[in-house]
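[retry 2/3] RNA-directed DNA polymerase: previous attempt timed out, resubmitting with same input.
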Amino acid sequence: MRLMGHIGALPVRVFVDSGADLNFLNPSVASQLGLRVDPSIIEPVTVANGRLCYTKGIAFDVNIKLQDYVFSSDIRLLSVVGCDLVLGAEWLESLGYIGWHFKDKIMEFQLNGCNYRLVGLCSPPSSPAPSRLDLGSLVISLLQDHSPLATLSPTPHPIVPLLDTYSDLFTAPTGLPPPRATDHRITLLPGTQPVNVRPYRYAHVQKAELERQVQEMLAAGIIRPSSSPFSSPALLVHKHDSTWRFCVDYRALNHVTVKFPFPVPIIDELLDKLRGATIFSKLDLRSGFHQIRMHEPDIPKTAFRTHEGHFEFLVMPFGLCNAPSSFQALMNSIFKPFLRKFVLVFFDDILVFSPTLQTHLTHLVSVFEVLRAHDLKVKASKCSFGQTTVAYLGHLISAAGVAVDSKKVQCIMDWPPPRTLKGLRGFLGLAGYYRKFVRHFGILSRPLTDLLKKDNFKWSPVADTAFSALKQALASTPVLALPDFTQPFTVECDASDTGIGAVLSQNHHPIAFLSKSLADKHKALSVYDKEMMAIVFAVQKWRPYLLGHPFTILTDHQTLKYFLNQRITTPTQQKWLLKLLGYNYTLEYRPGTLNTAADALSRQHECLTLMGLSQPIFDCISDIQAEYAQDSEASALLHAFHSNQRPRTHFSLRGDLLYYRDGIFVVASSPWRHRILQEFHCSPTAGHSGFLRTYKRVRRNFNWPGLKHAVKSLVAGCDVCQRNNYEAIKPPGLLQPLPIPSQNWTDIAMDFIDGLPHTHGRNAILVVVDRLSKYAHFIAIKHPYSAAKVADIFLREVFRLHGMPTTIVSDRDPIFISTFWESFFKLQGTQLCRSSAYHPQSDGQTEVLNRTLEHYLCSFVGDKPTSWVDWLPWAEWWYNTTFHSATKMTPFEAVYGYPPPRVSSYLPGSSSVHLVDTFLRDRDALLRLLRANLQQAQDRMRHYANKQRSEREFQVGDWVFLRLQPYRQSSVHHTNCPKLAPRFYGPYKVLARVGKVAYTLDLPPGSRIHPTFHVSLLKPKLGSNVAASTALPPLSDTGLVTWTPEKVLQRGMIKRGNSAVTRWLIKWMGLPDHDATWEDATSILDRFPAFNA
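[retry 2/3] RNA-directed DNA polymerase: success.
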């Protein structure tokens, strides 16, 4: 029962649990209230999930108020979940008779002549309430007799007092262990230099934890500062309870350490000594590392380094290769008088066996005395006392004898009958791997192998019987062998998408099988992580066989064989390293085709692949049908059908639904008409299809008169389609040629050609052309250039020859839109005419001339590009003396009034006579002829160009969509795919008409693009819903899209060549997080110096 109470002035959540023996208070509440606590009283308790926990002390004289009832009690401190205070049987027993109404959550009792009534919470509070069934933190009971040494299994009562007598053996060790003859030694290979491995880089959050744990070990006296030439890197491994475990990576030191094998007892011989025993106790020593001292001369070899200093261990640290040898040597030494009489020792597992309980008490006293004399501590949570059956070294030991632990073959016995051909092949692959150990294997498996024939897989009772018989044969001797510790072990591991599997064997003879399905969070891991998880799980599972003995791990993942030599960099690798430290193993690669058994075990948990096709099911039919009664047309149709009258054509009645031309009829007043059209056009399954596809999709299910027109209107007015669809029409906007000038060099056009090779300090060309005569100047310049520099060149190369022009036509190059350029020519009385945004065709004269000049240079300097400057005068002479079809003369003749001079050939023996033109052409007549020819050329060009164009006009106040060019990006190299960018933005309102084919739009405030656009970049907004858009990509003054970095989401490093390159995951201004891109940090800082990362 849950209820609210108070401790002092603090409200607490109380849970009354009759299944808990004692009362428990959350330590955080005790700390918050400042209660008087004795932290030295620590007791083990079991919780609802069977896990062993320890209390954190006792709070004395806690005053608790439950509604009208007030009492005081001493309460144990324990971290519980979902409540602050647990009141168990200890409190309930003090109340005497209790009346309980569980449904109404009412509890009544009488105490000291007063009646009390407690009313619990009927509805769950804001935070989840505790439950003994689903929360492992709630206490079932304190361990037997409240002894700090009791175990999870029932312990015979005569043993409990003995455990209390030797309670000091079950406490955590303090201080250094005593010196012993078996202190750990580290013997290096001859000629080995001191091992010195540079330390790892630590995260900021780990540095404080490292410092704290180092200080604790210094205070405990197990480490000391060091000046040793040896150094191994220290690291922190994250544990499941969100704390950190300190360990040292001794792989390099272990590599040069002489391995000291010691005689490992043969299990068969050990188990033979158990004959006649009926009572067993199993003791598990605490981690042996800190219970054994380091040999004094070898202490410097354990040195490790952190960011704050250099230290060395005085006790045997975790991770040294010979640590199991030292531990087993110690056990053999101290228990030598009792070994194989009533004690078996296998590393840290001690088994005490006796024929009777009374004898067993004597034997336990002897063992406890030895442990006390040598200051060795036992881990109470892993001990069991006075048992009739115990699990020891992979066997079940009882008075009846020794049996193989069923867990070794449980994965074989639990193998489900195959339901697919693939599953059957997997099982037979495992069985066939051990066929030489199974008698009559071919006969047993024949019914199963017959199912492998083509089109013959059909599971039958005969196949099921054969499947069970083969499983039983695989899980019994002589298939399973007993381990021989004089021979090396082999662990074969594999992982699949759904599980992991492993086989422990010797000389290709299996000893144990292992198979485990993967949790959902593990299925998402990489193949590397899954394969490594299989290795770690198998090694930990078979620890009694593998610890202190060399073994080989076989895996079909080739990169894992480098694990022993690679540098540990990830938290996951740190966890694996910690779990494998202390084992003597080698990793070898075996192709998957040869790793049959482990592969089959890992795929045991694979299920049939479920394939299905989901589609929407309309739940609107009932609403459409109900609307028939409110619609006069539908009501009339229903009445006609029910009275057997002839209804309107194309209507029919099927059940209670009206159909129009084989589609469900939806009345005109129903809101479902618009919803259906939206679903069949705008949903992900509809895909914003065009008119015909949308109409056919709707028509398959619904229909009504005028459906075709409604679909056309919806598709035409869809804003998403208008922004993203192509216009399948001729380019809008008829050709509007510029006015023909009246004089030479009064109206000119300018442009640049960039990107040329550096030659004589020049890498660009300034192109200036007279719009009337077509006469041009090509001037080599250096890029980058400024507006002042270009203006100076213009004065020296053009103005001095032809004077100041009246108009200059150009594109929107940054030079031509700069303030200096505008101010300079404004003072000269020159009008600057620039092309509209994204429409360079306005300056078609220089665009064509640029292409012509580039063709000339490519033709003559293609083999030697750096000589282009030398050919520029020849190109200018060639162009100006070349006939133009538009002017019907050369530019030279149009400017100077006579044809360009010709070079006559000299013929030997002939006399050259210079013929002088006897009349002069009239200058005005020449200009009139020139203008007439240009007008004729313009008319001809307009005639042919308009054949490929369409006419489009807008009125002031119309709404239009605007096409931009997001692929023209000037600041971001690695951008998102431009094909997925919208083709049109808007809609925007037309403010004014400029000329015949340009319009000024009402762009959002802050837009950095000129608001006047050519009509070819605009298309009308269709539909009645108009919402002004403020969405425009960030644009520069030139109309180029320029994304700006907003912040750094992640940081990383990659190897490029022989150096490390820092990379940033950049979130761009105005774009969502999922559009972030990885950029080089140096490139971002170069392009955006003001960006603060």
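[retry 2/3] RNA-directed DNA polymerase: Residues 124-153, 607-614, 903-923, 966-977 have pLDDT under 50 and may be disordered.
[retry 2/3] clearing retry counter.
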